[in-house]
Amino acid sequence: MARLFPILTSLLLAGTPLVVKVQEAEAAPLQIEEHADMDHGAMDHSQMDMSGMDMSGQDMKGMDHSTHAMPASSDSDEPGDAPPPPVPTDFPAVRYFAPDRMVASRAAMLKEMTFNTFALQVDQLEFRTGKSGDGFGWDGQAWYGGDIDRVVLASEGEGTFGERAERIELNAYWRHALDPWFNLQLGMRQDFRPDPQRTYALIGIEGLAPYWFELQGQLLVSNKGDIHARGKAGYTQRITQSLVVEPEVEVDFAFQGVPALSVGAGFERLELGTRLRYERNRSLAPYVGVNWERKLGGTADLARGAGEGVSGVSAVFGVRAMF
User: Fold this and answer.
1) Confidence of residue 234 (pLDDT cuts 50, 70, 90)
2) At what angle do helices 16-36 and 4-14 cross, to 10 degrees?
3) Residue 243: strand pairing partners
4) 59, 121, 128, 260: most buried by Cβ count inside 10 Å?
5) Which of 150, 185, 153 is nearest to 170 (CA)?
6) What is the homologous superfamily of the domain 117-322 according to CATH?
7) How far is residue 280's CA from residue 293's CA, in Å, rounded to a whole number?
8) pLDDT at 89
9) Each residue's pLDDT tens digit, 76-130
C-alpha cells in the first residue's frame, strides 16, 4: 500500500497539463460564439476607404474604362433608301466573241421569244332550266397575237328556247398589256339583240387584281349617243386537283334612260352565278351551277309595265372549252 500511493501521485501530476489543454479546447468555441454575437451595427465603417477597390481587392483608379465601352451598333430595322445599282450595259460574252456576232445572236434570241398564236376559249356554253322555262347562255372569245398585243373577238348572250334570243353581243377590240397584271381594251361592240340594234365604241380594262380576283370594266358610247358601263368580277378557287368552283358577278349601268331598249337610267341589270367545274382535262371541262339574274331600277319598272318578269333563277349545266 505504501508503494502504490507514490505511483498514483506521480501519474496524477504528470496528467495535469493534458487535462488543462482539453479544458481550454472545450472553452474555445464559447469564445468564438462570444465574438459572433458582437453587434456589427456598432462598428464604424466610415473610416474604411474602399472607393478604389473592386470586389477582388484590385485598384481600379488608374484604369481607362473608355476602352471597355461597347461600340454603337450600325444595324437598323428601318429600310434603306439607297438608289438601286445601275443596269449592266456590257455583255461578258463580248470578251470572247466578236461584238457583231453577239449582236446577231441576241437579235435571234429576242425574235424566238416573240410569238403570235391563235386561241379559242369558251368560258360558258350552257343549258339553263328554271321556273321561267328552259334556256341557254354563252360567253367566249377568240384571239390572235402575243403576250403584249392581241386582236380579240368576244361574244356573250342568252335566251329562251322557242323564242328569239334576249341578248346577243359581239365585241371586237385590240388588247394591249399595260403591265404584267392589267390590259387595255380599245374597240367596238355590236348588239344584235335586243332590238333596235346598237353599235358602241368600247374602252375598257381587264386584269388580275390582288388576291387573284379577275376584274373587267368597260365604258360604251353608242351611235345614238347613249352611254353605258359594265363591270365583271370573278374568282377561281381550286378545291381539289380536278374540282374548281368559280363564282362571278356582272352588273350593267346606264347613264341615261333608253326607252327604245327598255332601259332605265341607273343600274339596269345584275347577274350572279356560281359554277362547279370538273377540270380533269382543261381543254374540255363540264360544270354544273346556279345562275340568278334581276333587272334593277327604271329597267325593272319598264319590264313590269310590259308584263315581263324582273328576276329569275335557274340551274345550269354546261361545258368550258379551250383550243
Assistant:
1) very high
2) 30
3) 278
4) 128
5) 153
6) monomeric porin ompg (2.40.160.40)
7) 30
8) 80
9) 677 778 888 888 888 888 889 998 999 999 999 888 888 899 999 999 999 999 9
Instruction: Give the three cell numbers for residue 234.
Output: 370573278
pLDDT of residue 71: 57
Cell numbers that stand for 48 in this block: 474604411
Q: Is the pTM of this model over 0.70?
A: no
The structural domains of the chain, with segments of one domain joined by +, span 117-322
DSSP 8-51: HHHHHHHTHHHHHHHHHHHHHHHHHHHHHTS-GGGS--TT---T
- pLDDT recorded at residue 42: 47
Instruction: Tell me the three state secondary structure of residue 170.
Output: strand
Rg for the chain, CA atoms, rounded: 48
C-alpha dihedral sign at 25, 27, 33, 37: negative
Long-range contacts of 310-314 (CB under 8 A, 24+ apart): 312/130, 312/131, 312/132, 313/130, 313/131, 314/128, 314/129, 314/130, 314/132, 314/135, 314/290
What pLDDT shows up at residue 29? Answer: 45
C-alpha 277/C-alpha 120 separation (Å) is: 19
Q: Which grid cell is 59?
A: 485598384
> Is the bond preceding residue 17 a cis peptide, omega within 30 degrees?
no
DSSP string covering 237-281: EESSSSEEEEEEEEEEEESS-BGGGTB-SEEEEEEEEEEEEE-SS
